[in-house]
Amino acid sequence: MSSVHSVCCVAAGIAGNLFAFVLFVSPIPTFRRIIRNGSTEQFSGLPYIYALLNCLICLWYGMPLVSPGIILVATVNSVGAIFQLIYIGIFITFAEKAKKMKMSGLLTAVFGIYAIIVFASMKLFDPHARQLFVGYLSVASLISMFASPLFIINLVIRTRSVEYMPFYLSLSTFLMSLSFFTYGMLKHDPFIYVPNGIGTILGVVQLVLYAYYSRTSREDLGLRESFIESYA
């Protein structure tokens, strides 16, 4: 029974890593455009700064020194941190001087905050308290990242269009959250399953909205075509 449980844990964790990878590579077209045009244009680098901080905090939570037995949380966030660093590096390279200085300062601040968290958790807390301290920080960080899907959900409802909510990105977000929710439940770790449970619910909402508004858009298009043909 324990071997089956272990296999299920590993399977859920690996699935979460794979679906997260899809999310990590999703900004590549944006950065191809930045490199091609030699400018960051109107793009903001802040989402990548926030994502890097989130990955670093969750990476530290998944390390054996903090939470033994959940190394797959550390692996996914280490990969995520590398991707965010690459994106930020490209952004800084092609940004105008004011943005370059701002992003460099924010990047330094992120590493400073991470260093303080690591130092404080190692020096001020025993192992159990350390896991609680970093766990609460990781949950707060993950929940703050939900601002993006909430903004997209609001945008879809206001515009009645799924133009800015790609289906495969929404599906990957849902599957990643569901995988890590399952992983957290199997590991009996609320710091994993609570935020990913919220992410799973938001993913379901996005997919339902996509199904509804994409169908509505097709019906509207069909009506317009029928109207045009009747007067042709």
From TrEMBL:
Record protein name field: Bidirectional sugar transporter SWEET
Keywords per UniProt: Membrane, Repeat, Sugar transport, Transmembrane, Transmembrane helix, Transport
Keyword check for Transmembrane helix: yes
GO BP terms, alphabetized: protein homooligomerization
Lineage, highest ranks first: Eukaryota, Viridiplantae, Streptophyta, Embryophyta, Tracheophyta
GO CC, alphabetical: endomembrane system; plasma membrane
Function (record text): Mediates both low-affinity uptake and efflux of sugar across the membrane.
InterPro entries hit by this protein: SWEET, SWEET_rpt
